[in-house]
Amino acid sequence: MHDTNLNERQKQILSLLKQKGKASRQYLANQSLSKDGVSRVTIIRDLNYLIDCNLVVAEGKGKSTVYRLAEANQSLTYVDLSKYFETETESRQINREYNKNIYPQLKNLLSKTDIELWEKSKRVFKEAKEKLDPSIYKRELERFVIELSWKSSQIEGNTYSLIETETLIKQNIKARGHSEDEAVMILNHKKAFEVILEKKDSFKKLELSDVVQLHQVLTKGLVTSGIRSQKVKISGTQYEPLSSKHELEEELRKLVNHVNDSKYPPEKALITATLLAYIQPFADGNKRTSRMLSNAILIAFDYFPLSYRNIDVNEYRSSMIVFYETGNMYNLKRLFMKQLQFAIENYFK
After folding, report:
1. What is the rounded distance in angstroms from the CA atom of residue 199 to the CA atom of residue 202?
2. Is 62 left (phi over 0), alpha (psi -120 to 50) or beta?
3. Which pick of 25, 85, 157, 226 has the fewest CB atoms within 10 Å?
């Protein structure tokens, strides 16, 4: 299970455990009762749900039972997005500079339950390719590309609708009332996915050139390609990425090496989807490149790619900002796993 629908009490329990470290049922019940007026039985039910979601661990038995957050990795501890952003941008206590020592915490990011779901996706994807009629498989792949191109572009501010995107990709008919750049962005996603399929095996072991070339395909006709040499600002945060071209290339190489050294492909993909956007090596198109490169890794190892079809754009952006400012990946990982569940349920049936 994954925490896609936590109620306010459950969020409060996680916040209390984050503050206290370990706590008894009675303590958590008293704290919650004082604010929400709910019963001890309800708190126990909430705790059991959080345990099922792999968010909380129980230690001991009976009245001596205490609870703690399940994640020992500090980069995966619970962060309540709504509470985090109650503090204005200028007032938040954050890491303003890029953290060059972030890689040691980017290990063992996926739980046993997460890995089981990824392995299920691999089996489902394999069975679909083997059992589906080739024409149906091709049509499903086209549907996936359309929805990925639409949503990934929407995250970047593109205003094409899903229907307009389908018409553009299938018939090359541009929608009225939209800029040429919006059509180019969507078609570039389609082309990038074609490159990913054509060069599938090359993404099993990344090279710096793979990252740069995929970015070039995604941003062709929109921005200057190549690693930037000027400073960039990110809306909604005081975090400032590196500005030196030499340092950016050095950090990009470190990312490539870390991804290659990581053993489990979905973890490689999660790290790529997060860190490439954090480094911001290009003048523009960093997040879309991170999403597509992450998918390239998944496809290379025969896992389900992610379309981001039902992701909440503001939640995604907010989760990314939390990572920029704190190094906390909890919400990004949660969205990553939620998109995997969506992919299993909706594609290649």
Report:
1. 6
2. left
3. 157
**What are the sequence ranges of the domains in the chain?**
8-70, 91-346
Order of all β-strands in the sheet with 66-69: 22-24, 66-69, 56-59
- Report the CATH fold assignment for 91-346: Fic-like fold (1.10.3290)
Residues of the chain short of pLDDT 70, as ranges, are 1-5, 32-38, 71-72
Does CATH number 1.10.10.10 belong to domain 8-70? yes
Question: Is 309 annotated among the ligand-binding residues?
Answer: no
> How much is the pLDDT for 53?
76
Residue 36: what pLDDT?
57
Is there a contact between 99 and 330 (Cβ–Cβ < 8 Å)? Answer: no
Q: What local confidence, expressed as pLDDT, does residue 63 receive?
A: 79
Has 290 been labeled as part of a binding site? yes
Query: 3-class SS at 24?
Result: strand
The domains spanning 8-70 and 91-346 adopt the same CATH topology: no
Q: Please indicate if the annotation marks 286 as binding a ligand.
A: yes
Task: Output the pTM of the full model.
Answer: 0.85
* 291 annotated as a binding-site residue: yes
Q: Is 338 marked as binding a ligand?
A: no
